[in-house]
Design brief:
Strand order of the largest sheet: 1-2
Strand content: under 5%
Shape: elongated
Number of strands: 2
Largest sheet: 2 strands, antiparallel
Distance between the termini: 26 Å
Helix content: 40-55%
Order of helices and strands: EEHHHHHHHHHHHHHH
């Protein structure tokens, strides 16, 4: 789903519609053992790098979460069942909490985790990849979730830590607005002055029933009778007389035209005519990964979700994301 915030072309994408990684609401015992069991080497590494039980638990959670997701969740966002599982795996006393007394220690530990995972922290470079990939794809794709998923894949392929979801969302909204405005400007410029004036008159001139000519565009076809067919033919001739839409839409990707038409239809229907659109969630993401996802680079869940999406030929992406806290 999309949450629309009325403003200058700003659309906020629901995180659930993207492949951005986050914790599932329900985690099975199998998944806990598969993704959050520290190895002997990891236990020794974490013990050598910490000086108290709280820091040991926090560092262990950061490492396993980072390997799973490719970014750092806020420790308070880690599900209790994951905290309890790792606490028992590390053999710490019941009631030990993953807390840091100083932010400097937490920052140091994030650096240790990145080094251990072999991932580079370069937010400027990651943001550049996000902007470049979204700008390239926005000429043909219009759905924000699709654009975000493509950018996620590119950042993971580059071996970089994922920026926060808000970065993806804001960049997508900004660039998508710019690209769509450019497309609309091109359509406007390919119309003649007379054609533009004709479209404006649709909102000013009145039909025989007192409604504007624009309302004529929205009227559905009536029953299959000969008289209705002749009226529909005359309406089509009138519509074609407004201008050559093939010329107007020259160079605009078919997917963009379809989405623009859908948005226009929603505007024509009005608020009362809008209905939620059911979409199939392609791509499994972290929510549906099985044992085959136990190995690989941090963030490989993003690539898996995109791969499944391409195989199924569906738009959008699956997978559950997490609000990231850490270095931004």
């Amino acid at each position: 789903m999309l949450t629309v915030v009325w403003g200058p072309g700003w659309v906020v994408t629901s995180i659930e519609r993207t492949a951005y990684p986050r914790f599932k609401r329900l985690i099975t015992a199998h998944e806990l053992h598969l993704f959050f069991s520290p190895t002997r080497d990891e236990l020794e590494w974490a013990a050598d790098a910490t000086d108290c039980d709280e820091h040991l638990l926090a560092l262990s959670l950061m490492l396993k979460s980072y390997r799973r997701m490719g970014c750092f969740p806020a420790l308070e966002d880690v599900p209790e069942m994951v905290v309890d599982f790792v606490r028992r795996a590390v053999e710490l006393p019941e009631g030990t909490l993953p807390v840091y007394r100083a932010e400097r220690t937490a920052k140091h530990h994030r650096g240790l985790v990145r080094k251990q995972a072999g991932v580079t922290y370069d937010q400027a470079k990651a943001r550049g990849i996000v902007e470049q990939s979204i700008r390239k794809e926005a000429a043909a794709k219009n759905r924000p979730a699709d654009l975000i998923n493509i950018a996620l894949e590119k950042v993971v392929e580059a071996g970089l830590e994922l920026p926060g979801f808000s970065t993806f969302d804001k960049v997508t909204s900004k660039i998508r607005t710019e690209v769509n405005a450019s497309i609309c400007t091109g359509i406007h410029d390919r119309m003649s002055g007379a054609q533009r004036a004709g479209l404006v008159r649709l909102l000013e001139d009145r039909d025989s029933d007192g409604t504007t000519l624009f309302n004529r565009l929205k009227k559905p076809a009536k029953g299959p009778t000969w008289s209705h067919f002749k009226k529909l033919t005359r309406r089509l001739e009138w519509l074609e007389g407004l201008g050559d839409t093939d010329v107007w839409m020259d160079g605009v990707a078919a997917g963009k035209i379809t989405d623009f038409a859908g948005e226009g239809r929603g505007g024509c229907l009005g608020a009362a005519g809008l209905r939620p659109r059911q979409t199939h969630r392609a791509g499994r993401g972290p929510d549906a990964q099985g044992a085959d996802a136990s190995a690989g680079r941090p963030g490989d869940d993003v690539l898996q979700a995109r791969g499944d999406e391409d195989q199924e030929g569906q738009g959008g992406a699956g997978g559950d994301p997490v609000r990231r806290a850490g270095d931004r």
